[in-house]
Amino acid sequence: MRKVAIITARGGSKRIPRKNIKEFCGKPILAYSIEAAIETGIFDTIMVSTDDEEIARIAMEYGAQVPFYRSDKTANDFATTNDVLLEVLEEYEKRGEAFDIGCCIYPTAPFITAERLKEAVEQLEASSAETLIPVVGFSYPPQRAMVVENDRLVFKYPQYIDSRSQDLEKHYHDVGQFYVFKTKPFQKNRKLMLGDILPLVISEMEVQDIDTLTDWEIAEMKYQILRGKLNES
Question: pTM of the prediction?
């Protein structure tokens, strides 16, 4: 089965300027996604989808391909990941190339490892599922959530007021690092979050949203701790 890794890295980051190539623990953060994909040894093509010449140059320096640039339609603030992936697959098909498995990797995901990517691809290939999404458990049960109404704190789900945390159903959320999908069902559904989805549960230590500079600093600390533990083992 032919496999493509698609790293989505447009140039228009607003909250953290030039976020996708900002230095993270010594190198552009984009490099971590590229290097993990290369290290797996399982992808026929590793490409970066971008609209930005500097991002393209750095991507190629670290070993990825940039065979074409994004269209204006997928380079704006309103384009979704689904839009970008569909455009990439369609452009490859115009060039006579087709893939069976796609792996969408975000450019700000330094906790991704080659081992984790290989595990995800192998699990999807061995299953009848259409998509695999890495998830992490909520650190606190959402059933015990509270909201503010008329300046007062109230339980959103009062039926769980007396429930013990350990007795509540575990809830998970998308970690926002990567997705693995079978291309034909995806091109039919046109959304990663539709269809038969396989979960890959990962630890909270491997997850960090990076939306602000404070998030960035926390991520660097977690990365150094995680890598230190790996080097000791």
Answer: 0.91
